[in-house]
Amino acid sequence: MVSRLRAKQGGAEIPVVVGDMATTRVEGPFSLVYLAFNTINNLTSQEAQVACFLNAAAHLEPGGHFLIEVGVPPLQRLPLGETILAFDRSETHWGIDEYDVVTQNFSSHHAWFRDGSYRQFLVPFRFASSGIRSYGAWPA
User: Fold this and answer.
1) Strand order in 117-126's β-sheet?
2) Long-range Cβ contacts of 19-22 (<8 Å, 24+ apart)
């Protein structure tokens, strides 16, 4: 990702630090710490997610904001007692999420079908559902 950024116009001027978002420290402070597109789910334990929050707070200036962009799992679509929910069913891709609502862990199972063969992989995640506020749009 860093090499793709560097290849773009102006990409060489953007400072980049590669590290663990739960522990890596950088020069600050900042008015905004932003976790983009579900990255918080990649921290697969509550301890790691809490460490990320603490690390973000340590980088904020007084009055700063910590913004997390994350999808809320559609747990209300799970039938009682079920743990598996399909999110994509096409001729070339099957996507199935498997939820453990007690531990707040889930795994995203993917299978791609191409040229008479298939490949599959599994991605582990963790969601944190308590206290999530969802905004449909930014206030004007």
Assistant:
1) 84-89, 93-100, 105-114, 117-126
2) 21/52, 21/55, 22/48, 22/49, 22/51, 22/52, 22/55
Residue 99 in domain: yes
- Number of folded domains in the chain? 2
Say if 137 falls within a structural domain: no
Asked if 10 and 61 sit in the same domain, the reply is yes
Among 52, 68, 84, residue at a domain's last position? 68
| Residue-number span of the structural domain to which 101 is assigned | 75-126
- In tens, the pLDDT along 34-71 reads 999 899 999 999 999 999 999 999 999 999 999 999 88
